Structures are given as structure tokens and as C-alpha cells.
Amino acid sequence: MSGPEAAKVPNQILDVLRQHRELFPHSLPDGLPPRRPYDHRILLAPGKLPTRAPIYKMPPDQIKHHNQEIARLTAKGWIGPTYSPICAPTIMVDKKEDGSGERKMRMVINYQALNALTIEPEFPMPSVQSVLEMLGGATVFSTMDLEAGFHQIRMARTDRWKTAFRSVQGLYEYKVMPLGLKGAPATFQANINAYLQPLLGSGVIAYLDDVLIYSATLESHTKLLEQVRTAGVNIPGLSNKRGWHQARSGQG
């Protein structure tokens, strides 16, 4: 962290962040993520399979972006060719304008038919009321979000075929947890809670890919940041905590 953004952050906090620059990569490395406590499973209603969907019609410009995204995800090692009795359709949607003037698109998979037959796992999310109560007395806050959080969790190998989607190049399946699956938020929350369990409710709140760290004083906040760093880095399978994307601090 440097420049105007760093000028707003207390030196004690900056020291912690700079000591652990490896926690804040610009992008995730290629390949499957480390083993987490829980792979994502897709449990279907007994005797049920979603119907196969036809490929959606795309104009040439969308096909170009579609092929680029397939190539990117394949190079990352996050998807691969498959042969599956089910498949979901894909569409391309425009990304938010970033000022470059270049059209950018993202691929969206319509898992509606699959989700309708999926048995959703239960995992508690923190309520707004409980969060507000825990923040009482806190004056120093940091937030961290995880880069491509869902893609940092593996799909269970036995369930990959259920993520199959249609492409103009054929069928592909996800090796990591994709967006849009019923139950994916619960799997993500279960994993992040497993890593931060000793700290949850005692200065740390996790809600999906956002982690809030709160303290009454700057000194205690610095120690807590180190504890969060340790929880993320020293756990087997998450050795470099490569998912932490950025941190912002504020006092008030």
C-alpha cells in the first residue's frame, strides 16, 4: 500500500501490511487452490436430474468474448472439458464501464434448472443485529475481501460433472466452485469460519468474502491483525493466504 491511500492509514497498521505483502496479490495464481476444510458438494433430490439446455444464440462479438473467457478459465486450471448427461446454458453480459473505452464482458451460467433440484445445505450467516451488537465500543476497523473468493474453493471431484455448461467449443465443467450455485454461499461461509473460528465474535466478523476486524484501540487492533494473519497463513493448505486482496482501515 502506498500513495494517498497509505497516508490515511496509521503507521502501525501499515507496518503489519507491509510485512505481509504476499497476502495481497494482484491476481490469483494458476492451478487449483489449496485444499480447504470443505469442498463444494451438489446434493440432488433422489432420482432427479436437470434437463439439458440448448446453447443460447450469441452474436459474433459475444462469441469472441465467450471464447476468450473459456481460454482464460482453462489456462487458470479452473475448468476443463467434460462429458456429462446434464448441462447449463451460458450468456455473456457487459461488465461495468472502467473508463478504458474497451468493451468487456463476463460469462454467466444459468444454473436455474440445477438449483431447482439441489438440496441446499444450511450454514448460519451473521445477522445485522448481532453484528451491530458486537461492534459496540469499537473505534478502529479494517476490512479485507478475498479475490475471486468462490474460485478459491474446489468442487468435489464426484460433483464436477453437475456443473457442466454449454460452450460453442463443447461441454466444460468447473474444477472450482462457480458463481450461481445454490449452496455455494454456505460452503464459502463454512470454510472462512473454519479458518477464523477462534477469533469470530472477538474482534472479527466474517460474511462470505468480506472480513471485518474491529477493536477499541489502535494497539489492540494491530495485535488482532497479526492474529488474523496467523490464522490465514499458518493453517495447512492455506500457506500463503493468497486470497486476501486488500485492506482498508478507518477510525471514528
From TrEMBL:
Pfam families: RVT_1. InterPro entries: DNA/RNA_pol_sf, Rev_trsase/Diguanyl_cyclase, RNA-dir_DNA_polymerase, RT_dom. SUPFAM superfamilies: DNA/RNA polymerases. It comes from the Eukaryota. Residues 96-231 form the Reverse transcriptase domain. PANTHER family: REVERSE TRANSCRIPTASE DOMAIN-CONTAINING PROTEIN (PTHR24559:SF444), TRANSPOSON TY3-I GAG-POL POLYPROTEIN (PTHR24559). This is OSJNBa0079C19.6 protein, related. It comes from Eimeria mitis.
